Amino acid sequence: MGKEKKFIIPNCFISEKYKYFHLSSMLKFCRSNGIKIDDILRDSILNAILKYGTKKANVVNKWVDKVLKEGIKHIYITKINISEEINNMINSENGTEIINYISSKLNIINKNQFILEYDYSKETEPELISFNYDRSKFLVELKFCITLFQKDRQDNVEKIKYPIFIDIDLGNNLVIGRAKSITGLYIYSESDKFHDEKKIKTKELIIGAITKSLKTLNISINNERHSKKEFKNKLFEILDKFTFTPKKIEDKIKSCEKKIKDFVEDIIKTCKINVQSVENIKNAEEDLTIFIEKHISINLSRNEQKIFTNRKAYPIKIGITSLDNVKVEESSAREEPLQCTSAYYDNKKSTILKKMCDCLSLCFKRIETIYFGTKPYTVKFSIINGYAHFAFPEYIEEEDIQNVLSYFIDHNR
Question: What is the pTM of this model?
Answer without folding.
Answer: 0.92
